[in-house]
Design a protein that fits this description.
Blueprint: E1 9-11, E2 31-33, H1 51-88, H2 90-123
Parallel strand pairs: 1-2
Length: 124
Amino acid sequence: MNLSHNNLSGRIPTGNQLQTFDDSSYAGNRDLCGFPLPNNCSNPENPPATTSKNKYKKANGLRKVWFYLDITCGFATGFWGIIGVLAFKKQWRRKLFMIAEVTMDKVYVAVAVKISKIKRGTEA
């Protein structure tokens, strides 16, 4: 098995399987340490922090900021695009509430008819 050039980092686990590979199997993984590589880990439990990890954390943090900023701007635009128009356009507001009222009346009638049919079906 060849694990070279995979940007692996940290200590190579001890055991029979990974210890049997030679140095060339781990080539190109500069943040990897431990036997059979010549560079030893300074702290076996916590490998040293690498610059690539720090760059990733910074980029990931910046990405999160932009994500939440985009979500906030989208919500504000959508919310005020609808609520703002309804607040200032009286005719549109009345039309919207008329549509809502007619729809609720249709739903009420449909439910009442369905319940009536169910009751009539159980009585017969």
